[in-house]
Specification:
This protein has about 325 residues and is an alpha/beta fold. The chain is built from 14 helices and 11 strands.
């Protein structure tokens, strides 16, 4: 039996999805192929698709399962703090003493480390990570001694690393080192047949946790859930069901108990101003392009904030900026 993090909520989830959820059935089929290996794994998919939890499953189903599993957020904007978190730090002090801080790569000796959002890693740290994978050794920041480590590298990304390589933001040699075994997790909107199972699953667990006598989801509420595009994917679904369970007064979730964003008639999108439109039609792609330009201008080119304002994830913003040739190439 594979153990799961809190994201999976109950122990027999693995058995349940193996037969009921097509999306996760395929993912776990891939994982079974690498249970006896130590090869690096790259998990890519949109935000909210449980990538860190999938990485933990890979660790727990491997021969390293009794070792540590630690996560490093590579999108940390503080490059120095990120470098110390990964590699540790040491400093000589008077009287021949050394102060040491052990980094997570060293802490996970014998286990697995997850480089979450690896595509956001600064270039200088990318070079050091390449040495880790090639030689299984590190230097602590400020230190000179080589420290041998035995760590399995698992990485996740919400953006296309291939595009990042083409744009010069990610090292090509590092990409090929960490993407030895790629696992792609498609967004929830492409697996609509699984939405009912996942919604019922979350309802069962959350209703039990909150001790509310809710036994199902009404047909009209389920239709709204199935028709919704789920920009926040599975994470968003969990939050939606949790909200509905807390406000519902009947034995089944009613459509009115779902958050307003699930109801299409309540979505209001501001129109872009293109001047007098009486005598011309604006292509949809041009509207999308102008929306991106406007969002990036108002957010001072902050992709994360722009993505949130546009109602899409950061990886999608990257892809569309690349599509319309709006990214600044260095």
């Amino acid at each position: 039996m594979i153990e799961f993090s809190n994201d999976f909520l109950y122990d027999n989830f693995y058995d349940s999805i193996s037969t009921n959820c097509e999306l996760f059935h395929k993912i776990f089929s891939f994982i079974r192929c690498i249970t006896s290996t130590d090869i690096p794994v790259l998990i890519d998919g949109e935000t909210g698709m449980w990538k860190p939890s999938i990485a933990q499953v890979i660790h727990k189903s491997s021969k390293r399962k009794h070792g540590d599993f630690l996560i490093v957020d590579c999108s940390n904007p503080d490059e120095n703090a990120l470098e110390i978190e990964l590699f540790g730090h040491e400093q000589e002090v008077p009287y021949h003493h050394t102060i040491r801080k052990i980094g997570k790569l060293e802490q996970t000796h014998g286990g697995s480390i997850l480089l979450d959002e690896v595509g956001m890693t600064p270039s200088a740290i990318q070079a050091r990570l390449l040495q880790v994978i090639q030689n299984q050794e590190i230097y602590r920041v400020g230190g000179t001694n080589v420290v041998s480590i035995d760590v399995r590298i698992i990485a996740t990304t919400s953006e296309s690393l291939e595009s990042a390589v083409k744009l010069g933001r990610f090292r090509e040699d590092l990409f090929y080192r960490i993407a030895v075994f790629p696992i792609h997790i498609p967004p929830l909107r492409t697996s609509r047949r699984d939405i009912k199972f996942l919604a019922d699953y979350f309802l069962k667990v959350i209703a039990k946790k909150t001790d509310k006598p809710i036994i199902g989801i009404s047909d009209d509420a389920m239709k709204l859930l199935i028709d919704y595009d789920w920009p926040g994917n599975i994470k968003e679904m969990k939050e939606v069901i949790e909200y509905a369970v807390n406000v519902e007064k009947y034995s089944k979730i009613q459509s009115k108990s779902l958050p307003k964003e699930i109801h299409p008639e309540q979505k209001v999108k501001p129109a872009l101003q293109f001047g007098n439109l009486e005598d011309k039609i604006i292509p949809l792609e041009e509207i999308e392009k102008q929306a991106l330009i406007h969002a990036m201008k108002l957010t001072d080119n902050n992709i994360q904030i722009a993505a949130k304002a546009l109602g899409i994830n950061r990886a999608t913003v990257y892809r569309k900026l690349d599509k319309y040739n709006l990214l600044i190439k260095h």
